[in-house]
Design a protein that fits this description.
Length: about 300
């Protein structure tokens, strides 16, 4: 230990320096200086420990994500978490000065895990809704998306969900999503539910339904990445709703929210999030909002 070695070196020099004085005097001087040196060493060590303790206070956030939403978050061919939101949260935490651990959790466990403090944040294409704000806090929005509809090519003279309702069409949607709840507004539509959106899209290609409703990012991805399937379907108009996605926090974590919001604002303004949007080809129906679109 450098501090202790230095202390003994000083002691030896004092002994040599006072070599001609009496034993009692040398002992008195030695005792005096040893006390001062040890006090200095303890102060230095104490400051070092305090600094180390301060460094250890760099917060490590546990962040939950449901990696079933290509291209937002998913497991790639190597079994690793990947996607727009995986890249985004890495940039957000780094910019805010946090370390983090990203854990893959099923959708149904996200909010409960946050409230019971298993996680510090949740990011998983979660729409900012007033009813959700009653229990949780949201960051400023990082993406504007909405509902988009695909219908089979052989369905003609239809330009709206109202017309699909009139013909009592069967429309597929992933269960318990905003798209699923959106469909419930149209009484004539027969809703066919799926655990995953990809299953609804495949069923569309096999004529198991008349169309599918989903998040515009996801609909755009499946439409563009599956050329054979996309030849059998077409978009019904443009994005039908406007939704904002935010990172979810506990309501009491006010300071954490402030830091996350500041980080997101910077990443929006410097173009980082737009670059991620382009990298993951989120499409024209999804847009990076301006920072003033806060909740």
């Amino acid at each position: 230990m450098r501090g202790v070695s230095w202390a003994w070196e000083v002691v030896l020099r004092l002994i040599l320096k006072n070599g001609r004085v009496s034993y009692e005097s040398r002992f008195s001087v030695l005792k005096k200086y040893i006390s001062k040196i040890l006090l200095s060493v303890f102060i230095v060590l104490g400051l070092g420990c305090g600094q180390s303790s301060q460094e250890s206070k760099i917060q490590r956030l546990v962040i939950a994500i449901d990696a079933t939403f290509i291209p937002m978050s998913f497991l790639n061919d190597q079994g690793e978490l990947d996607g727009f939101e995986v890249d985004l949260i890495k940039a957000v935490t780094k910019n805010a000065g946090f370390d983090y651990e990203l854990v893959n959790i099923e959708w149904g466990g996200l909010f409960g895990g946050l409230i019971t403090k298993k996680f510090d944040l949740v990011i998983s294409s979660i729409t900012i809704l007033e009813e959700r704000k009653n229990r949780m806090a949201f960051s400023i929005p990082y993406l504007q998306s909405g509902v988009a509809v695909l219908v089979r090519n052989d369905i003609s003279n239809v330009e709206s969900l109202e017309q699909l309702a009139e013909m009592q069409a069967t429309i597929g949607a992933q269960i318990n999503t905003t798209s699923y709840y959106f469909l419930q507004k149209y009484e004539g539509i027969k809703i066919k539910t799926y655990e995953k959106f990809g299953h609804a899209f495949i069923d569309l290609a096999n004529e198991g339904n008349d169309g599918v409703v989903g998040d515009s990012v996801q609909v755009n991805y499946y439409f563009n990445k599956n050329k054979e399937l996309s030849q059998k379907a077409k978009f019904l108009g443009s994005r039908l709703t406007s939704e904002f996605y935010g990172i979810v926090l506990r309501k009491e974590d006010v300071e954490l929210k402030r830091k996350i919001d500041a980080s997101l604002t910077m990443l929006i303004e410097d173009g980082t999030i737009q670059k991620l949007h382009d990298k993951w080809e989120l499409g024209e129906f999804a847009a990076v909002p301006r920072p003033e679109n806060s909740n």
